[in-house]
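## tool: complex_structure
## caller: assistant
## args:
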Amino acid sequence: YSDHCPLTPLKWARQLFLINSFSVRRSARDITNMSQQAANGLPCRGKVLNLDNMNPNVRRVEYAVRGAIVQRALQIDKELKEGVKKPFTEVIKANIGDAHAMGQKPITFLRQVLALCAYPDLLDDNKFPDDSKQRARRILEACGGHSIGAYSSSQGIECIRQDVARYIEKRDDGISSDPDNIYLATGASDAIVTMLKLLVCGKGRDRTGVMISIPQYPLYSAALADLAAVQINYYLDEDKCWSLDIAELKRAVTAARQHCNPRVICIINPGNPTGQVQSRQCIEDVIRFAKEEHLFLMADEVYQDNVYAEGCKFHSFKRVLFEMGPEYSTTVEMASFHSTSKCYMGECGFRGGYMEVINMDPEVKAQLTKLVSVRLCPPVPGQALLDLVVNPPQPDEPSYDKFMKERTAVLAALAEKAGLTEQIFNTVPGITCNPVQGAMYTFPRITLPQKAIDKAKAEGQVPDMFYCMKLLEEEGICLVPGSGFGQREGTFHFRMTILPPTEKLKFVLQKISDFHIRFTQEFS
Amino acid sequence: MSATRMQWLSPRNLRLLNPGRNESLRRGGSGCRSLTLPLSPGRALSGPSATRRGLPKEKMTENRAPPRAKVLTIDTMNPTVRKVEYAVRGPIVQRALELERELSEGMKKPFVEVIKANIGDAHAMGQQPITFFRQVLALCSYPELLNDSTFPEDAKSRARRILQSCGGNSMGSYSASQGIDAVRQDVARYIERRDGGVPCDPDNVYLTTGASDGIVTMLKLLVCGEGATRTGVMISIPQYPLYSAALAELAAVQVNYYLNEEKCWSMDLGELQRSLEEARRHCNPRALCVINPGNPTGQVQSRQCIEDVIRFAAKERLFLMADEVYQDNVYADGCQFHSFKKVLFDMGPEYSDAVELASFHSTSKCYMGECGFRGGYMEIINMDEEVKAQLTKLVSVRLCPPVPGQALMDLVVNPPQPGEPSHDKFIKERTATLSALAEKAELTEQVLNTVPGISCNPVQGAMYSFPRITIPEKAVKEATDKGQQPDMFYCMKLLEETGICLVPGSGFGQREGTHHFRMTILPPKDKLTILLNKVKEFHQRFTQQYS
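## result:
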């Protein structure tokens, strides 16, 4: 497994510099020149498509989770393979929530059904349990020509959307879910971008503003840059375990109204990168806020099974919305998102996911259906996988015990690792870490000596990027600097996934602790 | 904004409705002026009202105004999304699905099943998957099967190779955003073999979520400028509506060049020049898209034509996009697939060092027909290094293309070799599919050309016939009265009466005053024969009825 890296860090840095330094005026002028030249048939130099005349929105996109530091990690990986001597023997990529890459085993039942769907001759094989065969048959019967190689309907296979709706009803204690409101997607990312795309309109002060938490998952900032929407930051309260504060939401929306048209609020619960799990009360408050301020609510709930801390529980926005009564449940427009990539499955590669839309204007819904039809359909293996996630083996079925055992083992290990991570980091002077109540990451705050900050700035780097790069070069551990997610000015963090196997995680935590102490000494 | 409507606005709302907003209210959703192609009639763009726009409710109730509207309404949604049209899955397909439901509920219809000939969906039409591909995918999904002696060794070795290049040896891990390294290497070797040794660098290969994803990503990179400097993109008419849909969404300017129906839908340099010169008056044409073999028109371009297009692109400084997803689907005698890449490199360094090109391929077509896996790749040539870095960054936001689709792509570009246990069966299956398609291509042309009022070019390649239909004046009038395109009217009637779902030519674009439909040639031969006869009978009936 290795990503490819065509860039040296220096070149990458230069590009980042270029990306940030071109003025719109300059590129507009170049474009005009170019078209005139072409029209006059004069000889032209340079590429048709270059950094100056490419889509300026794309240039503004940043995605730290796979950014400069990861490129460098891949390069080091390659150097190690080529025999270059390093102070470590392998690069540990703790930058991303990629469970299987970290050694988590797939759930047997899920993979059995997928194999049966891929190669239906196996339906005659008596090694496969009956419930896996039944599931496979049901999925295949819902596919054109009984093949997962056929396009599905653009909204997703109907029987899978029905299963998703039933799953949501069960999760939300009977609150009804309409399969027509379910859209299967290419991972949750796809659905989130599609939803944001629908919402963006207006120019200048009328441009759609979208409220996102800081720290945030950078898919949001990247999508907003790509769509040229206005990003409105609201800050989570690090001192209160990264909780959401309504006064802060009010401050953010009021300030934003001066320069854009805030129409959307995005919430990630359980939190990424911050790992907090929202209380029921907090969710109610957010819903009330959304209603008062007339905002479309987007609830990113891909970590809904990843809740570890005692006293914490996952509450879906949908459920809370409906429990607040018709005043809210018939008015607040909402989309919530789920995925096959996280929870106990960790099946990122299949790109399975769904969104449920609530109270969406029927005309807009028709537009949404039209829009997703252009991409034909989400990958069918991912749809099949999602079906198994929402319709797992039941107590009376042959695969039930094994399924439960595997599922419980994964979630229990994650809970243990969440506790372990918090514990070890909090023993290190200069690292403070909120409890990892849920999700798959810790986002500790790190104290950086002034000398280090100065050195970073002198090198044109953000201080926590400087820190993470040094950690990578010295220890082979790849983290993502907090600046990639956003943080309060003057504070520094990193995101680390808790996914490595316990023994490896202990090793990583120890190495980071040692590094931090060394780093602090070196720069004080 | 009318004075009456202003009355119930509170001072706060007036503040909210700053000049910029009033401006946008007046202009409504008419922001994009770029669509010149008369696509099927969408929803009328009604003038947005303040109510629909969704002002805060409490302010309205204070003033006894109508209840608060949705945050997101047809008037306050992204106007470029509204302009998107995608006929292949448009209203006619919606109606087909409805009819299917009605049939399953026991409703009486003049037919027993709906035949969806609107889309190139091979497996849905009964084409069987290639055994080898599915064996490897099953092995990758459930590696315990690697111990199963019923699977051939070459399937196992392919599966092992793919799994070894996945994180944690699992297809469930994210891959590199550009695609799995080993798969990209295999794609590069495949391209080199296909192109008689012209080198291909795996770094220039990006795996994608179907070819559509690659095409949209490439177009997105190219779009910039405002007003007369806005990027224009040349697309053929008729075109595959992914292009017009993507351009509408990106608010790029669609620049139409017409294929010559009389010359078997060939591309004409004079027409390219005309189209480009006209477009230069109002936009900045920067890209030229070519679909070869053609969709929906089924033509296969000659080597000479490709050379001419490349010369044109070089001279006019256009980025070339070559959609080659039907590269194995060539049926007509004397026709051969030539890749743009190969021709470009055969033309020497003057061109091969200069012309920027992206070409696209997919697992969905050819003999595989594996649409559901959403596998595909693009190869980029002569792309500016800085732009390439931006492309790599852009695709990283979506993390990675679906890994099963990448695995499938790997098998397509690296199929069983002579001497390997699966080779014979693979070749047999592949040949059977392609020769059946060739036979059906001919049958379609033959039968449709026997019908007075239908004329059909040979289906040289791809998977569709795009015959021209003569619609009687009375029918045109009735359609126009109903606010429908005449060929939509025709296709809807065909659907209601026979259960056959086709896509009207207006969804792809056609010369004014001409009418067509697109029909896939994929149904099994006996079914295709029935289908063609039904279309024939319908056309005769329709012509009589309206004459």
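## assistant note: The CA atoms of residues 404 and 447 of chain B lie 39 Å apart. The mean pLDDT of chain B is 88. Handing back to user.
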